[in-house]
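Newbie here. two chains, one complex. Structure please?
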Amino acid sequence: MVKKHDFAVDQVRRFLEPGPVVLVSCRHGEQTDIMTMGWHTVMEFSPSLVGCVIASANHSHELIRQSRECVINLPTTRLTDVVAKIGNSSGAEIDKFLEFGLTAERAHVVGAPMIGECHASFECRLYDDALVERYDFFIFEVVKAHVARSPRHPQTLHYTGDGVFMLAGKTISRKALFTKVS
Amino acid sequence: MVKKHDFAVDQVRRFLEPGPVVLVSCRHGEQTDIMTMGWHTVMEFSPSLVGCVIASANHSHELIRQSRECVINLPTTRLTDVVAKIGNSSGAEIDKFLEFGLTAERAHVVGAPMIGECHASFECRLYDDALVERYDFFIFEVVKAHVARSPRHPQTLHYTGDGVFMLAGKTISRKALFTKVS
């Protein structure tokens, strides 16, 4: 279990903009599910908007459409195998929290559970469903963010297709070249 | 200059899904521009769709809106300083190709120039402007892709905010855990 602290919702880009694979957890009624997601982008700082493709083939798609909520969780390389296995199984057949030994933590604002073993959890409400029908594209607002204090730059997973992940490497600053830092 | 070869447009996720900073080049009439972009996501394999936030404060915004085309170029760490400088200057004031010594290569399908020094260039046409007004969100179709043959996993830049970039690290395969590899 990773101890997380409140984090500014307008700063979640710090973790999402580098493009990591995330785990999306959801609940509708008695059913929960988790899916692995690589197709997402930050869309606005405030309100804190994140756009995500959640294909209708995913069991989570309907649960999220109905509940209009989810949690975007950030796994690190400690969870590499679990991330791959979650992406290659279906919530229609198994309870992924049970199957993969993950802890469903109660979120503060939404009904969807957070994943206790992740570095960060972003509670989301569906903000705009205009492109859900056409592209399975959900625009969420991050309404509450929880992040572990260290490490400052966790080693995230970045999917390149064909079963291959790129692991986050070192960080470098070019702040001196920035006229307005954001 | 990087020698690039034809690449399957339905496989551009291999380079874009890991979430790198990209350089978007465009042309409208006699004007060209380049911008640094971190807010993008793959949306579909075929047609090959990429969604991008191009804020209206960027000089490129209007050029792309008018021409309905652009090229998404993939820089590597060789271009780190140029990437930062492009993101901190305006095409309304300077010619970025000239200023930063970049080569404008003729694209095959679109009128926008490709950046010769980048590892990959994806020629794009505006596919859906439904969310441009509300979110500055452009959905492009990649109509032609050009990629260097090596390295297979180029060292890309991933922006975390505050002037700090994460550099792509090593790659690992978990193909054995994949039931259907895509």
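Moderator note: The helical segments of chain B are 13-16, 59-67, 80-86, 96-99, 132-135. The longest helix of chain B spans residues 59-67. Thread marked as resolved.
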